[in-house]
Amino acid sequence: MLFRSVKYMQDIESVDLTTLIVDLGTVQIYTSTVQDLIDNACIEFHIEDLLKAGQRQWKAVMQYVGMHLFPDTSVLKDKTLKPLGNATIPTNCNRYDREVLYKLCDYYIYISNVYSKLVSTVAFSYFCNIPTNTMDIWASDEPSSLTFKMWQKLQRSRKDCILDRAYDSNSPVGTMFVGNNEFGMNQPGIGDNATQRKAITAQELPRLDEKKSQELHAIDTQFTDATANNTV
Predict the structure, then answer these.
(1) Strands 20-23, 28-30: parallel, antiparallel or unpaired by DSSP?
(2) CB of 114 closer than 8 Å to CB of 123
(3) Of 163, 96, 164, whose CA–CA distance to 135 is shortest?
(4) Which of 41-45, 130-134, 190-194 has the lowest mean pLDDT?
(5) Which residues, at least 6 apart from 32, have a Cβ–Cβ distance to it below 8 Å?
C-alpha cells in the first residue's frame, strides 16, 4: 500500500494522474507512474512529508524514480537514423531524443515546484537516469539548439526558485535580495539611496572644491620646497 500523508494528498489532488507525459513508442510515461514511484521512494527512504524534505533527499527520490522509470535508457535515444560521413549504415550516434527529454524537463520542473524544491541539472539527470554531466556538455551547444534551451530553462527555473525562497523567507534581507537581483535596488546609482546621495553631493560641491584647492596648494608648496632642497 502506497504511503500518502494528508498534506501530500492536498497538494496533488488537483493533478490528473492519468496524463501522458511522453510516448516513447514501446513505453508510455504517465504522471500516475511517476507519482507511484515517488510514493515508493518516500517509503524506502522513510520520508513522511516530501514537502519538508531537504534537497539531498529530493535528489535521492529523483534518482530512485529515474532508475525505475528508465532502467534501460535506450528508450530515450533518438530513433532517427542517418548515415554518418561516408558510412552507408545509418546511425543515431547514440544521441538522446532532445524532444523527449525536453518534455521530461518540463514535467521535472513542474513536480519540483509542487514539492517546493530547487530545480537543478543534477536532479533532472537523476530523474532521467542519464549522466549528470550531460547538461554541462549541452551548456556549450549552439544557443538555437534544443539542448542549450533545455539547459537554459533549468538554469532560469533554478534562479527563479532561489528568488522565491528568498522572498518566502519573510525576511527583509530576503526581500532586498529579490529586489537587488531583479532591479539592482542597492547598486550604486539606483534607487532612493542613490537619489539622496546625489542631492548631498550637489550640496557639498562648493566645500569639496574648496577643500581640494587647499590640498592642491599644500601639495604644490611641498613639491616646490622639496625641489629647492633637491629631494625630488
Answers:
(1) antiparallel
(2) no
(3) 96
(4) 190-194
(5) 17, 18
Confidence of residue 186 (pLDDT cuts 50, 70, 90): low
d(CA 20, CA 56): 28
CA distances (Å), origin 226, targets 217, 223, 230:
14, 5, 6
* Torsion, CA 122, CA 123, CA 124, CA 127, rounded to 10: 130
CB 34 within 8 A of CB 19: no
Q: List CB contacts of 204: < 8 A, sequence separation 6 or more.
A: none
Q: What is the pLDDT of residues 71-118, one digit of tens each?
A: 999 999 887 766 666 666 666 567 899 999 999 999 999 999 999 999
Cell numbers found for residue 41: 521512494
pLDDT value at position 21?
95
Spatial CA neighbour of 56 closest among 134, 122, 141, 102: 122
> CA-CA-CA-CA torsion for 187, 192, 193, 198, nearest 10 degrees?
100
- Looking only at the bridges linking them, the beta strands covering 28-30 and 82-83 are unpaired
Lowest mean pLDDT among 41-45, 142-146, 186-190: 186-190
